[in-house]
Write the structure tokens for this entry.
Amino acid sequence: TVAASPTPHAEILKQCVPILKEQGIDLVVNEYSDYVIPNTAVEDGEEDANYFQHIPYLDDFNAQRGTHLVSVTGVHIEPMGIYAGKTATLDELADGASVAIPNDATNEGLLLLEAQGLIKLADDSNLSSTPKDITENPKNLTFIEVEAANLPTTLSDADIAVINSNYALGAGLNPVTDALALESSDSPYVNVLVCKEGNENNEAIQALAEALHSDTIKNFIAEKFDGAVIAVD
């Protein structure tokens, strides 16, 4: 049993069901819309693995909650994007414009805003930077921290918003065509298959890891998501 975000994680996992069935493994995909229960469920043994997060989030979660979760393999990147709300382009951003960003430290999207020249961070290698770490803010942007899943619905309330691709896709946005700017493919935010420490070599989990790297899945990701989700080797 694997806990997953509905888009794109559960969609990708469902393509693995017939691959694993051939090996006598019954893959059950359980969908969750938040970023906490999939981890606590694996820690507590209610789920065998999960697939929804990247390593900076995983490391932060383990540190904050004392969990014992480990990455089995990296699968894909979902480039974060900047989307237009009340302001149509980045060039048109007015002094004091509002920017909606995810409210968890490892997902805030500030590196993407810095890459666009909108802000300067104290340390751009710190993947957990928050608005407190901004050292230069020439447009006096104001930051609204919102639960990641709710960002698409609050888009009209802010001038721009930084949204994770899975939530953008779920809201009918196409990151490739709708985003004003997208994270590059060398993103540190590779989404990983995760299990509890000690279960990494479980036969079924290893079979799933192998399936996720198969040409069948790579081709599915490329065709289904058209650049909004990028498979990694």
